[in-house]
Amino acid sequence: MTEMPRENVQSYPRPPAVESVPQRITVQLGGSLVADTTRALRVLETHHAPTYYLPVEDVRATLRPVQGSSFCEWKGAARYFDVASGSATAPRAAWAYDSPSDRFAALAGHIALYAGLMDDVRVGDLRVIPQPGDFYGGWVTPNLDGQIKGAPGTRHW
Predict the structure, then answer these.
(1) Are 67 and 49 in contact (CB under 8 A)?
(2) Interval 10-31: pLDDT, tens
């Protein structure tokens, strides 16, 4: 069984921080393995569930670039992808920072996935639930305490 220390999202830093993930990450969609890695990174930001970034080399799904982008004040410009795996395609289910800011340079060559658009996402053997709302891409694990941003009325805190 995966053991993760208790963490309070209200204690996460601002500006955010990047750290390595010691647990194995697995993601499934359409009956197939989307990703399997022991080399993930996560971004920790006040009031957010951690956002996990997986090395592109460890993503087995097909990533199809889609129109549109977004801009993070910390990380820079993100582009989005449809994720196709097995019998399913999840539209606009992944994003990446091709040229992140210096502080987040480690995210280059990594992809993040919206847990709510995948069939099964795990950190170790713990099943992930998506961060509330439809904007943020954090992964909620059972070790998290505190109020997680994303539910209605919390977007602009």
Answers:
(1) no
(2) 999 999 999 999 999 999 999 9
Residues 41 and 38: their CA atoms lie apart, in Å, by: 9
Residues 30, 13: Cα–Cα separation, whole Å: 36
Query: 62 Cβ partners below 8 Å, 6+ apart?
Result: 83, 84, 85
Burial 62-85 (b: 16+ CB within 10 A, else e): ebeeeeeeeebeebbebebbbbbb
pTM of the model: 0.95
State the pairing for strand pair 25-29/120-123.
antiparallel
Domains and CATH numbers, the chain: 11-145 (2.170.150.40)
Look at residues 57, 49, 48, 33 and name the one whose alpha carbon lies nearest to residue 111.
57
User: What is the DSSP pairing of strand 110-113 with strand 51-55?
Assistant: antiparallel
Q: Using CA of residue 45, residue 75, residue 126, residue 152, what is the dihedral sign?
A: positive
- For 37, the enclosing helix (H) or strand (E) is strand 32-37
Beta carbons within 10 angstroms of residue 55's beta carbon: 15
